[in-house]
Amino acid sequence: MIQISIEKTKNSKTIPPSKDFGFGRHFSDHMAIVEFAKTAGQGEVRNWIAPRIVPYGPLAIDPGASVLHYGQELFEGLKAYRGDDGKVRLFRPEMNWKRMQNGAARLCMKAPPLDLFCEMLVAFCKTESRWIPRESNCAFYLRPTLIGTEAFLGVRPSQDYTFYVIGSPVGSYYGEGADTVKIKVETDFVRAAPGGIGAAKTGGNYAASLKAALEAKNEGYAQVLWLDATHRRYIEEVGTMNVFFKMDGKIVTPPLDGTILPGVTRDSVLQILDSEGTPAEQRPISLDEIKDAATRGTLEEVFGTGTAASISPVDSLGINGEKVVIGDGRVGPVSAKLLKRLTDIQYGRVEDQWGWTLPIEIS
Ligand SMILES: *Cc1c(COP(=O)(O)O)cnc(C)c1O
C-alpha cells in the first residue's frame, strides 16, 4: 500500500442534478496529485514524491514548463460505475496505465508505475464517493493527466513531471442512450501520420483535430471519419473513437498500425465478439469498399467505440457532400447488443468473465 495523504476541502460543492451533468462540465471537490522530482538529500535522483489528495483547484506551474511550450502531455479517460448492487467498479484501469506507459515512451516522459496509478485512482474514488452517480447510464469520469513541468526552453524532454487525476460526474455522451450520429468523411484534414504520435493519447492530436470537428459541426455532423494521411483512402477512426463496420455480413475494424489510438473499448468489443463466435476482422478498410457496400445495400452497421459514449451507432456518412445511409438509419442489432453487454459488465449486472472490473470498497 502506498501512503496517500488526504486534505479534505472546506467548501464542498453542490452536485448538480444528473440531467445537467453533460460531459466533463462539473468537477468534483478534490484532485489526486503526485510529482516526479528530485528528493531532498538524494542529489539528482528523481522519484514520485508525496502522493496526495487535495481540494480541487488551480495548479501552480512555471510559465516555462515544457508542457506549455512543447506539448509534453498525456491524458487518460476511464469511468467509475456504480452498479445496481451499490458497488463501485473501475473498468480495466491497467489498460489505461499501459497506454500511458506506451505514450510516455513515445513522448520521452516518465509515467507513474502501475501500483501508484491504480492506488491514486482508488483513493480518489473513495474520497469522491458522493460524486459517483447512482442514476443508470451515469458514471464518474476520471481524467488521469501527465505533464512535463521542468522550466527550460531548450528542446529536450522535461526531467520533472506532475501526474494528477480529476473527476467529473457524466451522463451519457450524446444525451439519450444510444442515439445515432451523422458523420462527415474528412477528405482534407488528417489526424495522424505514419511515424507520428497518433497512437499516444496526447493533447497534440486533439489540437490537430479541432478545426475539422468544428467545420463538420457547422455542416450539421456530430464528428468526422478520419482517413489515412498517406493515401487518403483508408479508414482510421471516427472523431475520438475507434470505428467498426458491419458489411457483407462481416464485422471489420482497421488494424492498430501506429496512427490509430488503441482503445480499451475497441479491445473489449473485439474480445466480446470473439467469445460470441462472430470475430471481427482487423484489416485495412478503404472508403471505396464502404461506398461499394452501401451501393449494393450490404453496409449494415457503423459504430464508434470509446469510454465516453461506449458504443455510438452511426446512421449516415457524408462523403463529399453526398449522404450515405447506413442500414435502415437506426441503431443496428450488433451495436445494441454490444452496448448492452459492455454496460452490463460495467454496472455489475452480469458475471465479469474476463476479470475486467476493479471493485472499490466504498465505506
Ligand atoms: C481515447 C480515444 C479512443 C477510445 O479509447 P477508449 O480507451 O476506448 O476510451 C479512440 N480514439 C481516440 C483518438 C482517443 O483519444
Walk me through the topology.
Layout: E1 5-6, E2 30-38, E3 46-55, H1 66-70, E4 73-75, E5 78-82, E6 88-91, H2 93-106, H3 114-127, E7 139-148, E8 161-170, E9 181-185, H4 203-218, E10 223-227, E11 235-238, E12 242-247, E13 250-253, H5 264-275, E14 281-282, H6 287-296, E15 299-306, E16 310-319, E17 322-325, H7 333-346, E18 357-360
Parallel strand pairs: 1-3, 9-10, 9-16, 13-14
Antiparallel strand pairs: 2-3, 2-8, 4-7, 5-6, 5-7, 6-18, 7-8, 10-11, 12-13, 12-15, 15-16, 16-17
The site of pyridoxal-5'-phosphate has 14 residues, from helix 5 and strand 15.
Keyword list:
363 residues, alpha+beta, D-amino Acid Aminotransferase, Chain A, domain 1, D-amino Acid Aminotransferase, Chain A, domain 2, nine-stranded mixed sheet, 7 helices, 23% helix, binds pyridoxal-5'-phosphate
